Amino acid sequence: MAPRDSRWQRLRSASGWVSLGSALVLGVPAVSRAEEPPQLSCFEAARQGGLVSDTTASQLCQGASSEAPARCFLRVQHQSFLDEPQSLQLCQYASPRDDPASCYLRTKAQTFLDEARIVQLCQPPVTQLLQHFPYGP
Fold first, then answer.
1. 58 exposed, middle or buried (CB, 10 Å; 0-12, 13-18, 19+)?
2. What is the pLDDT of residue 51?
3. Interaxial angle between packed helices 54-61 and 38-48, expressed in degrees from 0 to 180 and rounded to the nearest 10
4. Model pTM score
5. Cα–Cα distance measured from residue 23 to residue 134, given in angstroms and rounded to the nearest whole number
């Protein structure tokens, strides 16, 4: 059984070199699935959740540094009655260190603030910065 395994490993290794060589010759960077751009992984996570259109997913994940915006959006859509535009406003630009969904859900349960105020309170800090500098600092 060992000789077959080593042949398979050599074949896999050779095919990897061929793919890499083809990519270099064509001038295309060799990107593995693990090195997928964060915006694309966010988009795919949002679409796999089933509640998001392609348009909403692309808006949600524009500029994303991780899948955090998709996870936030899907959580808020599943656990609250927040509409799609407000969910988008809350979750767009979320990062792994932010947790706008938890902030929203806790604030909603513990205060009498209306949804618009809670979204404004809990959205990621970068969203506030973008309102002051819509074209960049």
1. middle
2. 77
3. 140
4. 0.69
5. 38
